[in-house]
Specification:
The chain is of the alpha/beta class. The chain is built from twelve helices and ten strands. The strands form two sheets. Strands 1, 4, 5, 6, 7, 8, 9 and 10 form an eight-stranded mixed β-sheet that branches. The chain has a two-stranded antiparallel sheet with strand order 2-3. The longest helix is centred in the N-terminal third of the chain and has 16 residues.
Length: 286
Amino acid sequence: MGARGQQGHVPHRRERRRHTLQDLSRLREGALTSFKALVLAGSRGGETDPAAAYAGVSQKGLIVLQGQTLLSRVLGAIEAAGPETIGVSANDEAIKAALAGAKVVLLPTASGPSQSVEQAAHQLGFPLIVTTVDHALLKAEWITQFLADTPPSADVAVLLASEEKVQAAAPQTKRTYLRFQDGRFSGCNLFLLRNENALKVVETWRKVEALRKQPWKIAAMLGPSFLIRYLLNWLTLDQAVAKLGKLAGVNAAAVRAHDGLAAIDVDKPSDLDLVRALVGETPPTA
């Protein structure tokens, strides 16, 4: 049993998932049938993650849910979707130790998530699916459907779930939503970088990270026309993502999640309580 907690029958499961991926790809001509994957499992030096501290572990990836760490759960879901390669970007020694024996490429972290993605993309190649180690409920089907639903013309795609689907799947959750003309949507921590041109988005992402404490400068980057149209609710989700992509010099697409649970990750202690409740697990007693 490796770091993912998987038994010897995994290759058969992987083969089944590959067939599923091929079946789903027929939904859209030109859809991807192979991909690499990256899990962001790094941590900011010197910072204690509140969800990890709440669970009594040093890193979010080591939080245990249904007998498996979040790291194992995420890797297991990705492997079942049939990637060519899985990379894990990590800087914590405990996370690295948990990966011992796992069939993954261990990658160093950079100064921020965007740089880590760029660095990993150069080593792993494209198309590249990117997710995070706290995507506790991740399913292989979400990945294969995301690939099938992404327009072939998109350099970059992002998965989002509508408020209606999120509330239907987990009415007790409190998520952050972005408001558009056609509804409110929450991010799902699942991204696709189809080709090298997609790295232009990472360059823009890096600029936003650098300016995160100066929001007025981020606003200046986007331009007054975009901001006014967004604030006045004049943009649909597709229009907004396409315009943001154009600013970065790429074709960008928003893909809508079929399952509202895809929007749920473990950012804070209440999120951990929620995912435990959703899988029917009783929180451990102190």
